[in-house]
Amino acid sequence: MKRSIPTSLALPAALAALLLIGLLAAPGALGGSSRPRASAASSFLTGVGNENLDMLTDPLWQRLHTRIVRYIAPYDAVRHPYSLALATNFIHAAEAQHQQVLVAFYHSEYTPTVLPSVAAYKADVEKFVRRFPHVREYQSWDEANRVSEPHLWSSPSAVLAAKYYQVLLRVCSGCSVIGLDVLDEQHIQATLDYIAEFKREIYRLETIMPKIWGLHDYSDVNRLEGWRTHDLVKALGGQVWLTETGGIVKFGGAFPNVNGSGLRRAARVIKFTLALAGSIPQVKRLYLYDWSGGTSRTRFDAGLTNARNQPREGYVVLCRALHASGCSSVHVANN
To answer: Looking at the DSSP assignment, which residues form a beta bridge with residue 100?
Structure first.
């Protein structure tokens, strides 16, 4: 069951669904590229990004024996009991399952259109880091290059994103602080420009250039293409983690799920994504998003399970890729 918050607040998971508006092609645009071949020399860890606590007790998830999980937390979670309780419950449950938790900070659930000052950001994330001493992997801002939407959310400039990164690097000594976390978009020039501006600011600040970068390549893989991912990995440099990726079951009218077509499409995309990641040596982690699917009224749905926690075709693809037991006997849902 998806977490719920007061209707007056902005859900990070729900807002993440909107990021694809205008970025993805219609289903007819999918395909047309050759399937990537995994390199024998490449290897990467695979996990699931999710904010749903129920995932961690689901036997279907436990069967996968993953070692990593990603959680998106508001940067100001320590100042709001509701946000802090959600983060605390998820992180502690994940740690009890021996998961290495990657926390990605994001806008406030209460004031999503207000970007924090560098000082305010530092005060809040420093308290968060101290509260969770076993979490040693962080991202300073989830999907930093998302275009701001009036009355919905605001995203930092590349300059401000660099300053957030510098702050987090300083307050979490000894942590793995993943650098800029970006979306690919259909036309990647704006993303390339954002990356370049971020790097220029890092040089100006005379801080440490990130050694690990985050990339969300929805636009690329859901077209069954890989050139955007390759180009952005090259532009980022160093090690890259696909901190969000996956197959879309349903996204508005562009990607409908008619008679299970979206389920089959998403499964193909997941298989393609895993192969693509295996073909790029710089990719060392992959987090599929997300675990819990929606209903027929949900605009964005990329769940490995449906709204009733039943496994979909995409789950079986992941199950087999991870060489889990009993994958062939899983009865998949048709919604």
So the answer is: 68
Instruction: Please calculate the CA angle 215-154-223 and round it to the nearest 5 degrees.
Output: 35
Which pLDDT score is estimated for 37? 58
Torsion (CA) 244, 4, 14, 12 in degrees, nearest 10 = -60
Looking at the chain, list the stretches that DSSP marks H as alpha helix, in order from N- to C-terminal side. Answer: 12-18, 59-64, 81-96, 118-131, 158-171, 189-205, 218-221, 227-236, 261-278, 313-321
DSSP state of 144: T
Q: Which amino acid is at 74?
A: P
Sequence-distant (≥ 6) Cβ neighbours of residue 178 within 8 angstroms: 102, 137, 138, 139, 140, 210, 212, 213, 214, 241, 243
pLDDT at residue 36 in the model: 67
Domain layout of the chain by residue ranges: 25-323
The model carries a pTM of 0.88
Low-confidence stretches of the chain (pLDDT < 50) are 1-33, 38-42
Q: How far apart are CA 249 and CA 263, in angstroms?
A: 5
Per-residue pLDDT, 253: 76
Q: What is the pLDDT of residues 13-32, one digit of tens each?
A: 433 433 443 444 444 444 44
Task: Of 179, 164, 172, 68, give the one whose Cα is nearest residue 128.
Answer: 172
Topology at the third CATH level for domain 25-323: TIM Barrel (3.20.20)
pLDDT confidence of residue 27: 40
Give the whole-angstrom CA distance, residue 164 versus residue 126.
Answer: 12
**Phi, psi at 167, each rounded to 5°:** -60, -50
pLDDT of residue 304: 97
Residue type, position 267, single letter = A
What is the helix (H) or strand (E) element at residue 285, kind and residue range?
strand 283-288
Amino acid 12: pLDDT? 42
What secondary structure letter does DSSP report for 34? P
Amino acid 282: pLDDT: 97
